[in-house]
């Protein structure tokens, strides 16, 4: 990597060279520039990296926070119409590290083919990065990564569904102005709670900042303000249960021997046409029918019929994670919440839920040393601040969440705006069938069906950790970006 000869380039304002003086106080307006080259799909792609901090302002123009970001711009292309991808992770309270160092950026973790950590920790080039077709900026909201509030700032202006959207829309608009990207086709990508964030930002940017988008990508989406509580939530778990049980070979031969996506299509149909109406029947469901359903649920979940009956045909995810592999034959393991391919060991085999999230502890093994090494040593962002993988943002105000309906409204007002959902089949936290359900109910009229798409993968919440899915997901994203560029087609119905 080649660094700018000054090591630290202060943009927009003259600021102290904090790279030479380690400090736990974040400079609110600064950047470091470096250059590099990566080979993507067999072709060299030179790029410029800018990692720095841009202020958040209140209505009176006072700095209330500084957001740390990392911006990758392809340097051999001088095109004002080149796409821009703005990336957020979730939590709320999670840094941008996950998609930054494992999905779309030019660097990926040193992990095995299935996503498990290996030592020595580190990073390598990402041969599947979408940097060949779009520039990318990874953003850390307040208190995540190196981003921090200014001294004396009011917490309540940041930590809530709508507060988060309001200040980030202003920050994004300012960032785009500073970097001369107003003519670029713009795309937002969010993972997990980041899908709530980008769904809300689509309308906020459009109606308050007059910034129109070409695409929004929802990776492992939350409910985005579209209700699916009660029996809908309970029924929607079944396809995920089937996927996880299939992976661990806990299904009867007739189901186990099917291709996963063929099996899931069958389970989805059963969920919608049989299970949901049965749950709606409640106590009016007779014992014979209840037993029949319990035996079908066993074929699709790997759990015993009596377990289903004892739980009124509504087994919780925590119970499933604890009990799918319970018993000596199955090894008495727990399975992961965010990615149920991962197994854990509890103090006691019995119980209602696992002692810990086996997948998250595995991920933190590799992500934490990698992001600290990369930002500090390779990009030269020297600071004594802790990089918050998960920052202090709670309590989080979840009131007034209309992010899904607002995304639909943004699509209706903007004929250029397309939406793609990406989900892993083994994700038990934001399961893929819930994601499909939200997509179906994002536009229940069906009039924008041609601008909505779903892609599924053979991994979990961070589906890109599995090497084949890293390639597939980036290719799906690359094609989504290309297809959302309308050329000279006017934005009209």
Description:
The protein is an alpha/beta fold and 493 residues long. The protein has two domains: 2-226 and 364-483, Rossmann fold; 230-356, no CATH class. It contains 13 helices and 15 strands. Strands 1, 2, 3, 4, 5, 8, 9, 10, 11, 14 and 15 form an eleven-stranded mixed sheet that branches. A two-stranded antiparallel sheet has the order 6-7. Strands 12-13 form a two-stranded antiparallel sheet. The protein is globular, with a radius of gyration of 23 Å. Mean pLDDT is 93; it is low at 2-21. Residues 1-19 form the signal peptide.
Number of self-contained structural domains: 2
Radius of gyration: 23 Å
The class by helix and strand makeup works out as alpha/beta
Can you identify the CATH class of the largest domain?
A: Alpha Beta
Principal-axis shape:
globular
The CATH topology annotation of the largest domain reads as Rossmann fold
Count of beta strands = 15
Q: In the CATH classification, which architecture of the largest domain applies?
A: 3-Layer(aba) Sandwich
What's the quaternary structure here?
A: single chain
The helix/strand series, from N terminus to C terminus, equals: EEEEEHEEEEHEHEHHHHHHEEHHEHEH
Instruction: Give helix % range.
Output: 25-40%
First-last Cα distance: 48 Å
The CATH superfamily label of the largest domain reads: Alpha/Beta hydrolase fold, catalytic domain
Strand content: 15-25%
